[in-house]
Every structure is written in structure tokens, then in C-alpha cells.
Amino acid sequence: MKHIIGFAGSNSKNSINKQLVKYTLEQLDGATAELLDLNDFAVPLFGVDLEKEQGYPENAKRFLEKIRSADGVVISLAEHNSAYTAAFKNMFDWMSRIDRKLFNDKPMLLMASSTGSRGGASVMAMASDRFPRHSANIVAKFSLPSFNDNFSDGSIANEELNEELKEEISKFKKALQ
Ligand SMILES: Cc1cc2nc3c(=O)[nH]c(=O)nc-3n(C[C@H](O)[C@H](O)[C@H](O)COP(=O)(O)O)c2cc1C
User: Fold this and answer.
1) Domain spanning 2-176: CATH superfamily
2) Contact 67, 73 (CB under 8 A)
3) DSSP secondary structure string for all residues of the chain
4) Which residue's CA lies nearest to atom 22 of ligand 1?
5) Whose CA is nearest to atom 29 of ligand 1?
6) Sign of the CA dihedral running 76, 81, 84, 90
7) How far is the CA of 4 from the centre of ligand 1 (A)?
8) Are 102 and 35 in contact (CB under 8 A)?
9) Which single residue of 82, 97, 110, 152 could bond 122 by disulfide (Cβ 3.0 to 4.6 Å)?
10) Is the Cβ atom of 77 under 6 angstroms away from ligand 1?
């Protein structure tokens, strides 16, 4: 059975992106799914001096190992000021130092959601451009705008958007085979 990991690019306890990842993983029947939380992998603020003095943090190695041992990756990025959140960027920076090809060519469903109407379009564009340079194999993409209007009780309330996600999940599943 394929093993999928999912996580949000956020350290918010009530992360809307984590809720979207959870909903998405629930639909991956026929695979085992593991929902990760950046809060369980605390790492210090990346800096080249700290890296020289102390090496790589264990939690960055652990997180990278989670990606390496998965057959596919589901990510939903939160957008802060049109970019990655500091929490995600920090983990990304550390992992990229350990292994530049950190996404290991695993099929990826890349998502973003925000409370605004653009649904994290800027961070989605940023990741779409950058992740492949770290060996991400982005096979499906989905953005959920205006989260509070379109998501309730653990699922996407807007039928059109829900169908859109289902199509992307199908593409992702196909790539896993
Ligand atoms: C510092 C900060 C900056 C934000 N910048 C943006 C932004 O650029 N675009 C956007 O759509 N939402 C922005 N938001 C609102 C986020 O979409 C909202 O907080 C969302 O819940 C973040 O996702 P998360 O809950 O998964 O952390 C910002 C929120 C914060 C706290």
C-alpha cells in the first residue's frame, strides 16, 4: 500500500491549510496517510553561522526522512505577505541545505488556501517555480480561496471547488501508481 504524507506550510494550531490537507488525505482511499505538523518538528532560525557551529537540526533531518520514506506528498501552503510563512520557509531552508533535491521526485499535490479571495495565488506561484528545482514532481495543484466561505465541518462546502479538488486528487492518485 502506498504511503502518503501531508502537511501545511503553517505553524498555526488552527491552520486552515492543515484542515484542507486533512480533508484531502481522507479521500486517498487505498493508501495510508500521515498528517504531519511543523510544530512537532521545531527547528531554530536558519543561519549560515549556526549551521557552521551546530550542524543540521535533528528535526530537519526527521522531517526530510518523512518525505524520503513517503510515496507521495500533499502540501498546502499558507500565505503570509504574498510568500511562504516564516515557519515553512525556515524548515525549507534547513532541508535544502541537507539535501538540495529534498522533494526526491515524489508525486506532489500542491495546494494553497487563504482567507482572501486569491487563495494564496502568490505563494502557489512561488512554490510552483521553486519546488521543481528541489526535485518536486508537481502532478496536481489546487487553490481554495476565501476559506471561511468555502469550507465548513471539515469539508469543502462549495460544490464546484470540491469537484475541482477531486479531479486533482485523481491526477495525484494516477501518478502514484
Ligand atoms: C502576517 C500575515 C500575513 C498575511 N498575508 C496574507 C497574504 O499575503 N495573502 C492572503 O491571502 N492572506 C494573508 N494572510 C491571511 C492568511 O490567509 C490567514 O491568516 C490564513 O489563516 C493563513 O493560513 P493558516 O491558517 O494555514 O496559517 C496573512 C496573515 C498573516 C497573519
Assistant:
1) Flavodoxin domain (3.40.50.360)
2) yes
3) -EEEEEEEE---TT-HHHHHHHHHHHT-TTEEEEEE-GGGS--PPP-HHHHHHH-S-HHHHHHHHHHHT-SEEEEEE--BTTB--HHHHHHHHHHHHH-TTTTTT-EEEEEEE-SSTTTTHHHHHHHHHHGGGGT-EEEEEEEE-SHHHHEETTEE--HHHHHHHHHHHHHHHHHH-
4) 78
5) 80
6) negative
7) 26
8) no
9) 82
10) no
Q: Which ligand 1 atom lies nearest to the CA of residue 78?
A: 23
Q: What was the pLDDT predicted at 111?
A: 99
* CA–centroid distance, residue 177 to ligand 1 (Å): 35
Q: 72-77 and 2-9 as β-strands: parallel, antiparallel, unpaired?
A: parallel
Give this prediction's pTM: 0.98
Q: Which three cell numbers stand for residue 39?
A: 510544530
What would the pLDDT profile of 17-75 be if each residue is shown by its tens digit? 999 999 999 999 989 999 999 999 999 999 999 999 999 999 999 999 999 999 999 99
